[in-house]
Write a structure and sequence with these properties.
The chain is an alpha/beta fold and 372 residues long. The chain is built from 13 helices and twelve strands.
Length: 372
């Protein structure tokens, strides 16, 4: 009986939390149809890259066609000790396409954080925009971010990121999860309780980056984006914004191999104790407990032949997730089938419990490096 009581209590908490996220998501004004005005703000697009010779030309092509005046932004590829031709490919692309506002740097120290910091130290731009080497974006990406920077006075702007290239159910579930996380992250920001953000689409003032000492005192290898967001929030609460503008969406591909996906999720989970806020850690632990007790509950209900009780908490969770995900998916122009969300609930239970148990004790692979 105690298992049922705990499970229903946690399920109710989770459902309330999801509707809290929905309420905050709907508060964010969609700026997709606002007119864009060009300014003279100097921008540096920083791309930390490690072994990205295949992806970089595609990203650089997206940056070459940006509507923001070329004389007001530069592209900096900051190489993180690649073992392939990342630097050569980038330099060749800049030369062949006569891109005078692009340059390549080699980070003196290892890690993504060091690569970003090295690039920032080598630019005079007022606004820094970071993205990953395996992304693409709309031609108005920079313009929409700069306009948000001017209109809101935000010190840090978190942009939307979505996954593309889903070819099977597993990859579609991955995309749905990513979409949900994007909306939940945005909801925390609008509630002035920032939880996490994505460095594939992040903009911040160089002055503020220097003022909070960048990534100094970092306790985790991963988490450059969220760590910086929380440092700025601590010093300047209310000066972080989420840019809900379809022109600002950055696209990146789904992870094709399940082994790589698991490594990525372990990397994400590894930063929870050291990088995230107390509120985010509390939510993360509670969400893990929800799914852990759902698994126990499932086994218990089968043993007791209690089939009505068996499905009720799963239905409660599925309905609340469908409502939230469809609202977020509408902004991303992503079709989220209800049946797939329902199917994903038990799968996600196993997945989140497994990652939560293994991440604190396991190493993970990232770009050919083994990290603890």
């Amino acid at each position: 009986m105690i298992i049922y009581v705990i499970t229903y209590g946690l399920t109710l908490f989770y459902v309330i939390y999801l509707f809290w996220c929905l309420k905050n998501w709907l508060k964010i004004r969609d700026k997709s149809f606002d007119g864009l005005k060009f300014t003279n703000i100097k921008v540096a697009v920083v791309i930390p890259a490690r072994n990205e010779e295949t992806n970089l030309p595609i990203l650089l092509q997206s940056l070459v066609i940006q509507s923001y005046p070329k004389e007001n932004f530069q592209i900096i590829v900051s190489d993180d000790h690649s073992t392939d031709n990342t630097i050569k490919i980038s330099e060749k692309y800049f030369i062949e396409n006569n891109i005078k506002n692009g340059k390549c740097l080699s980070s003196p120290k290892e890690s993504k954080k060091e690569a970003i910091t090295h690039a920032i130290r080598n630019t005079e731009a007022e606004l820094i925009i970071t993205t990953d080497a395996d992304t693409t974006m709309d031609k108005d990406w920079i313009s929409s971010i700069v306009q948000e920077y001017e209109n809101t006075g935000a010190y840090l702007i978190c942009g939307p990121v979505m996954l593309i290239g889903q070819n099977n159910i597993s990859e579609k579930l991955q995309s749905i999860e990513f979409t949900g996380l994007s909306g939940i992250g945005a909801s925390g920001i609008i509630a002035n309780l920032p939880m996490f953000c994505n460095g594939a689409n992040l903009a911040f003032s160089k002055k503020i980056f220097d003022e909070v000492n960048g990534y100094e005192r970092s306790l985790s290898y991963s988490g450059d984006d969220t760590q910086l967001m929380l440092k700025i929030h601590k010093s300047y609460p209310g000066k972080i914004s989420f840019l809900k503008d379809s022109r600002a969406i950055v696209q990146t591909s789904v992870v094709k191999r399940n082994s790589d996906l698991f490594e990525q999720r372990k990397r994400w989970a590894s930063k929870i104790p050291n990088t995230l806020s107390g509120f985010t850690i509390f939510i993360s632990v509670m969400v893990w407990l929800v799914h852990f007790f759902l698994l126990i509950y499932f086994v218990k209900a089968l043993i007791d032949f209690n089939f009505l009780l068996l499905f009720l908490p799963f239905i409660m969770i599925a309905v609340s997730e469908i409502v939230l995900l469809k609202s977020i998916g509408k902004f991303f122009n992503e079709n989220i089938p209800s049946w797939l969300v329902v199917m994903g609930v038990p799968i996600y239970c196993i997945y989140i419990v497994s990652v939560g148990l293994l991440a604190p004790f396991a190493t993970y692979q990232w770009k050919g490096r083994k990290v603890k």
